[in-house]
Design brief:
Elements lengths: L7 E5 L6 H8 L5 E7 L1 E7 L3 H7 L3 E7 L6 E9 L1 H10 L5 E6 L5 E6 L1
Parallel strand pairs: 1-7
Antiparallel strand pairs: 1-5, 2-5, 3-4, 6-7
Length: 115
């Protein structure tokens, strides 16, 4: 789902926005653009993966749940990643998450990790 520049837009709403997580996952910090996703809400889930919990400093991470209610909104940032960086994000996310394609409030189509 390249954005035309060969980059992959990824909507982040949790720990992938943290500088230490970005440095470990991508090797550098990644700037992003503010955006939102309607029809979803944030919930919290326990993270059993010790490496991920240690890196983020949290043993509970946010996770998106689809509600289809347009009043529900999740705010975050769109990171523009190389295909290799997107693969690294896939490796960082634990098995509780799956990557899905969504259309954000801005009209941008992006990947996002959902329950």
């Amino acid at each position: 789902m390249s954005d035309g520049s060969g980059m992959e837009p990824l909507f982040t709403y949790g720990t992938l926005q943290l500088p230490d997580v970005q440095l470990d996952t991508f090797g550098h910090r990644v700037d992003g653009d503010d955006d939102a996703l309607a029809g979803y809400r944030l919930e919290w889930t326990d993270i059993a993966d010790e490496r991920v919990a240690q890196l983020s400093g949290l043993d509970r991470h946010p996770i998106l749940r689809r509600t289809d209610d347009p009043r529900d909104r999740v705010f975050g940032r769109v990171l523009h990643l190389t295909p290799e960086e997107l693969d690294a994000a896939d490796e960082y996310e634990v098995s509780l998450y799956r990557r899905a394609s969504v259309v954000l409030a801005s009209g941008v189509r992006a990947w996002v990790y959902v329950a």
